[in-house]
Amino acid sequence: MSASTMSNASEASWPRRNYAWYVVACLTIAYALAILDRVSIGLLITPLQAALKINDTQFGLLQGMAFSICYSVLGLPLGMLCDRSHRVSVLIGGLVLWSFATIGCSFAATFHQLFVARMLVGIGEAALVPVATSLIADYFAPQIRPKAYGVFVTGSSLGTAAAFTLSGLFLSWADRLIALVPVFNGMAAWQVVFILCGAPGLVLALVLLVSFREPKRHGVVSVAQGFSLGPIMALFRAHPKAFATLMIGTVLNLVCVYAIVGWFPALFIRAHGWSAAKTGYALGAVGLPISTLAAFSSGWVIAWLMKHGHRDAPMIAAITCGCSMAVFGALGCVVPSAALALALYGLNALFVNWNISAVYSGISQITPNELRGQVMALHNICSGLIALTAGNFIVGFLSDTIFHQAGGISYALGLVFLFFGLCAAVLLAFGRAAFRDAVQAYSERQAC
Fold it and tell me: How far apart, in whole angstroms, are the C-alpha atoms of residue 332 and residue 321?
């Protein structure tokens, strides 16, 4: 059989390329909406603190722990469900739940009620990443997969930029909407923002319901019955250093990512005197094009590195992100000029999403198909319990207890970026050789 015939036969075993990219586009939009619903609260810090009488530490808990408790705890069961059931149904159910929960945030009258609503958002969003990464792995051949993951990661950039831009826009529209639209009568501006952020997810759920198809699973050796951790523990024991450094190192990077999302708006509002609307427009205008470009490029960079013999390409990408956090991220917090802080925010945005692409590509390189959803779910657990909780709580705690002077948020944020970015880069560099060995072992297993 000729090489071209073999290539065509291999290509025919995968779903049609145009439909596969349609699936990625929809998953990217879902990711964007998830990030929008998760982080839009960051720009609402001033009205929420006034309305619900909460301090910075409590606000950090609302952004982090309230979301991450259920997001993390349910991650592994949902990952197992993803590996053993109809993934599209799991995705649609999660999307509907987190969209309604975001709308429900608008009806919270106390800190505790808002905490519960944020927990429900976390339950719904816990399904997205395990399902999406598993679906993409079955829609694209391995040599194209990093590019698909790179596109999917743009959802994070789009969602973050949309959270800043649209929240600012919705805040500026709120008074007019309250006056003109009967359903908003009597509401506060922050309540309108939550409703407008949650509604698009319900529309997307209908689109997925009528257009998504479950793909054939590729490379499945066996699927365990019941909820057993035996197979995944055996995988980790085979390559402990590779999995530990990839997962923990990228989670440390995510501490910085969540600190950006949760507290960078407060930096401009408090340290530089900007309004919430102006902050949202500026962060969105700078972050959207740069982060989207970075997310697209991350997959292509990883694919290019792999093509040129770097089996540890995901580790290299994640190390670059950690270095960027420690340099551009930390400096952006402490410079005296708002314009310079915005420029450094843009420079850091060039590399932020390299970390997420590294996670998806790295896990797919060293994990069998039947365990990918579970490994990704375990990463989500770590990112929720450590990164999302710590990234938001530590900054709020430092601001309340140590850097409580005017503008103290600058030093709290800068310290988090410097410490966690450096730790991530060092740990990931330490694990490069072990990751290369794990890739080689997985390739040999697939060839048998």
Answer: 15
